[in-house]
Amino acid sequence: MKGDHAYTELAASPVCGLTPYEPGKPPEELEREYGVSDALKLASNENPFGVPASVRDAIEGAIDNVRLYPDGAGFALRGALAEHLGINPDQLTLGNGSNDILVLLAESFLTAGTSAVYDQYSFVVYRLAVQATGAEARVSASNPAVHEQPLGHDLDAMLALVDESTRLVFIANPNNPTGTWVDGESLKVFLRALPEHVIVAVDEAYYEYAVGDGYPDTLTWLDEFPNLVILRTFSKVYGLAGLRVGYGISHPGIAELLNRVRQPFNVNNVGQAAAVQALTEQGWIEHCKAENRRCMDGMRAGLEGLGISCLPSRGNFLLAHVGQQAAECNEYLLRQGVIVRPVANYGLHEYLRITVGAEQDVARLLRVLTDFKEQAA
Ligand SMILES: *Cc1c(COP(=O)(O)O)cnc(C)c1O
User: Which residue, among 213, 285, 280, 238, has the nearest Cα to 45 in the 3D structure?
Assistant: First the structure.
């Protein structure tokens, strides 16, 4: 098309180096492209059990208000969250998903001449958010494949990359796509060693799945570490990925800065209403967590039975080591209507990331993989 080549020359230089985020394939797209029906998506770590009836009702109730702008201050949701978490509302920043908070952090603290640190195999959005600002991205080497937390964050390696120019460090806990985590003890040692001018974003998108058993209780650390920003979301166990609601928890001074760059109406009114109601459904959340644990155990055992080992995981997904046939296996799964997530874009060519589905989803996945192994043999 006329003008195609010219616009990259006009673009802000950090934007020229960006490559767009590759989302999990939507089921409708697979059905269109492959002519399959009944596609099963295990590619974006969504909750297979969805939301309880009261949250559906809250969403329906909010539809009457869609002609109105949402409450830009998110008064009801911030109040409900503050009470749920035992914090002050002025410590909260609401985001259009926690992805939004990651971008707000980058916009607030990074510019050309500063640097940010993240792990080689950590959530790809950190790279995108940092690169767009023109700041220097310092990428630390992950743990080796043979390790207690294989391919997980090496906090010492991260610390070694921090200097005067560093404003932000991103820690995904647990990490996506690996599922690995850092324990409370190690994280605290890391935070104590870090200079005060460095903001640490601890991304706890899978917090509800991960909590307990050595997992850090970062919420109680904010007094000791005012440079800590905790990120959580309603997209994963709360089952509201499509409504885009996430939040940051921090020192009020950091929240105030993030709110300066935040779009005034970044969280829509249906999302706010759904999230407020979802917080009251803790019994449902416990149910989803227990089912996830049970189905993940079954999935891991089934995969291992097929000779596919998986990394340890504190999330609702497994990083499966398929081997050199990973791309071929992914293609086979797609043709059978099962969408998982290739992670070659992370440099993990031999792996597939697979969301833990409900029991029947895991059974279908394992059936298709069994067929794949048989036809490949
Ligand atoms: C899913 C995910 C998020 C963010 O999701 P939102 O839908 O934007 O809240 C953030 N970090 C990690 C590590 C994730 O896996």
Answer: 238
